[in-house]
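Internal QA ticket QA-208
Title: Verify multi-chain structure generation after dependency bump
Assignee: T.L.

Test input:
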Amino acid sequence: MINTNKRTWFILSFLFPTFLFFTVFTIYPIARGMYISLFDWSGSSEFMTYVGFHNFVELAKDSILWKAVANDYFLVAGKVIGIVVLATFFAVAVTRFKIRGAKFYRIIFFMPNIISVVVIGVLWRFIYNPNIGILNSLLSIFTEEPVRTPWLGQAGTALWSILWPSIWAGVGFYFLLLVAAILNIPASLYEAAEMDGASEGRQFWSITVPLIWEQIKVSILHIAITTLNGSFVMVWIMTEGGPDNATQVMGSYLYQMGFKQFHMGYASAIGVMILVISLITTLVLQRLLRRDETQLS
Amino acid sequence: MNLITTKRNHRFLKLLSQFILLLWTTAILYPLLWTALGALKNNKQFMLEKPWALPKLPLLWSNFADVWNRYHFNEYFLNSLIVTVVSTFLAILLSATTAYILARFAFKGSQVLFYVYLSAMMIPMILGLVPLFFLLNDMGLINKLGGLIIVYTAWALPFSVFVMVSFFKSLPKELEEAAYIDGAGYNRTFFQVMFPLARSGVITIGIMNALNTWNEYLMGTVFVNDPGKYTVPVGIAVMQAEMQFRTEWGPLFAGLLLSMLPVMVMYVLFQRHIVAGVTSGAVK
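Actual output:
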C-alpha cells in the first residue's frame, strides 16, 4: 500500500509542474485566443464587448485578409515546388549519381537552417537593395543603364522576392531527410533495374520516387504547416506586409491588427482562421497525397 | 550502341548535377561571405564600389566595436544568453520528468496526455500571442527577461517531451530494475540512472531549444519593448529599421555576423545532434 502511494506521488510530482506550465502558458492562451475572437476589444479591460461571430463576418468581407490568404498559399505552393524539386534533385545527385562530397554538401546546404530568420531577412534585404545590393549590380553587368529595381518595394516583385530566400533557407533540411530516405532503399533494386536496362529516369520514377514517397509527403505537409503558421517573420522583416499589402500574410496581418492597431478581437479572429486554414490544408493535402501513393505502387 | 549512349547520357547527367550542386553551394556560401566582407567596409565603399569588391585596407575592424558598444550588442548578447541558457535548462528538466513518466509509468490517460503535448506542435503559437501578452502583463512579466524565459520554455515543451519519450522508451528496463533492487527510490533512480543514460536525447533537445530560442524574434519583439532587454534578433531588426534614417551598413553587417557566430560554433561542434534533432521533429 505504501509502495503504491509512493508511486502515485512520484508520478504526480513529475507530471504536475510540466503540465501546469503547459496549461498556463500554452493551452490557456490558445483557448483564450479563441474566446477573445468573439469580442470587440481594444486591449483595455473596461471595453470588452461580446459580438458573437461579428469579427468573422467582418473578416469574410475584408479584402486585405483574402489577399493575405492568397499570399500565404502562394508562398506554400512556391516553397513546396521549389524546395521539394531542388531537395529531391540534390538528394538523388549525391546518392544515385555517386557524386563525391556528399558530406560536404550536407553540411553546407543545411547551414541556413540554423540561422535566425531575422538575420536571413536582413541579409536578403541587402541583396535586393536597389543601390548597394548584389542582385542589381549583377544584372547591371548585362545592361547599359545600371539596374535600379526596388525588388521589395514594388507590388509585382515583392512576394517573389520573399519566396526566394524562403526556399534558399529551407532546402537543406528536406535535402537531409530525402538523402536518408534514398540511402534506405535496398541497392539490389537498382542493380536489378540496371540489369534490365532501365534508364536513370526510369529508375528514378519507378524505384526512387515510390520508395521515398512517404518522406516527400512528410516534407510537403511540413512545408505547408510551417509556412501557414510561421511565414510572417520573414515577411515582417523584409516588407512589413507592404507595399500596399502586396506581401501581407495572415500572420503579419494579425500582428498589425493586434499590436499596431489594437483590434485584439479582430486579431484573435485572424488567429483562429490561421488554425482552421492550416488544419484544413493538412487534411486536404493528406488526402491528395495518399491517392497518389496508391497509384504509384 | 544503346549501352554507349546510356553511358554517355549518364556522364552528362553527372556533370550537370555536379555543376548545379556547386552552383547551390555558391548560392549558400556567398551571401554569408558577403556579410563577413561587408562587416569590414565603410559607407563609401558600400556606395561607390561594386558589392563584390573586397574591403579596402585598412580593414574596418572598428565596425565590430561599434556594433558591440555603441549599438548595445553587448547587452543584447547578454540578454539572449541568459534567456537561452535558463529556458533551455528549464525545458530539459520539465520535459525529461514528464517524458519519463509517459514512457515508463503507463496510467489511465497517459496516452491522451502524450497526444495533448504532441498536438501542440501543430497549433500556430501566434493564435495565443494576444492572450499571452495580457497574461504576462497581469503577472508583471512584460519587459522582463523572466517573461521571455517562461514563454520560451513553454514553447519548447511539446517537441522536447516528444523526443525524450522516445529516448526513454529505447532504454532497457533492466537498468531501472537493478536500481530498485539496490534499494534506490524512484527519484534517485531517475536522477542518477535514467537521466544520465538519456544524455544523448538531452543534448539533442538542449541544442534544438537553444538554437530556437537564440533565433526567436516574434515573442521577443512583442513581449519586450525596453531596449535594455532586447534579445539579439530583436536588436538586429531594430537596428536595420534605423538604417532608414542613418546609414551604417558596416556595423549592421558586423552585427549580423556576430549574431551568427554562436550558432555556427554550435553547428560545428554538434552537427550530428542538430541534424538528428531537426529530423526527429518533422517525422512525427
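Spot checks passed. Residues 209 and 293 of chain A are 10 Å apart (CA to CA).
Status: verified.
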